[in-house]
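Hi C.,

You asked whether I'd gotten around to modeling the 129-residue construct. I have! Everything is below, sequence then structure, no commentary in between.
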Amino acid sequence: MSIFGKIKDAIFGEAKAASQPPGAGNVSPSASPGVKPQQTAPTEVSEVDVERNLAAMAEGKDLNWRTSIVDLMKLIGVDSSLDNRKELAQELGYTGQLDGSAEMNIWLHKATMRELAANGGKVPPELLD
C-alpha cells in the first residue's frame, strides 16, 4: 500500500467503516430456497471531517500535526522516516530535492491535505494553503 494510502486509511478508516453497514452490496444470506435473494444497497460515504478526526486523535498529545508532516504521520501511526517521506513525495509529485528539507516537508504537508480533500475529505482552507 502506498504511503498516502496508509495516511488516508488512518484518517478516513473509521468514518468509512461506520457509514457502510455490514454486508452492504452483498446478497442477503437469509434467502429461502425458491425466493429471490434481496440485494442490500451500498451506502454513500459522506465527506470525512479531516480536521475533526485529527484533532480527536491529537487530544493529550504534543504534536503539531496542523503544519508538520512528521507530526501528522506520527499522530496517525505511519512511519515518518525520511525514506517514507521521500516515497510520499514521489507519490504526490514533488519535483524538488528529496532531502528532508523544510521546503520538502512543508510541501508534503500541504500536498497531503490537498490530496485528502480530493479524496472525499473535508479540509479547512488554512490547511490547504
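If it helps when you're writing up: The longest helix spans residues 3-19.

Thanks,
B.
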